[in-house]
Amino acid sequence: MEKRVARAASLFLDASRMRFYIHTQADLDAAIGRLVAIDPRWRAALALGGRPPVRRRADGFAGLASVVVSQQLSTASARAIWERLAGAIIPFEHGVFLRARTARLARLGLSGAKI
User: 40 and 67 share a domain?
Assistant: First the structure.
């Protein structure tokens, strides 16, 4: 079992070997199949929690910022914060974002850890 977990970790943590991108539901299904093949315990987790949906985000800074905003929040809360940020930081680019004051970002809904 430990060898299998170590192999899974090496496959997923070695970015130089990462040549698989998830763009469609079929891509996600293939990735899940590979994961289950490496560690069959994922089959039970999938049966319990269901298959995750594909969640595409914008490329670049906006996509990265969206992921950070969404961490550890409900989907509805993350969407509300994201909409406030996107409406207030115009254009939504890293340079404009970096110039925003901490207090303003907090009023828009970002926690101190995310600022």
Answer: no
Instruction: Find out whether 38 and 8 touch, Cβ atoms under 8 Å.
Output: yes
Residue scoring higher pLDDT (62 or 17): 62
Residue span of the structural domain in which 102 resides? 60-107
pTM for this predicted structure: 0.52
Q: pLDDT tens across 22-54, in order? A: 888 999 999 999 889 999 999 999 999 998 888
User: What does the alpha-carbon distance between residue 76 and residue 56 come to, in Å, rounded to a whole number?
Assistant: 16
Residue 113 Cα distances to 22, 36, 76, 102, 106, angstroms: 28, 34, 20, 11, 10
CB 3 within 8 A of CB 13: no
CB-neighbour burial class of residue 108 (10 A; exposed 0-12, middle 13-18, buried 19+): buried
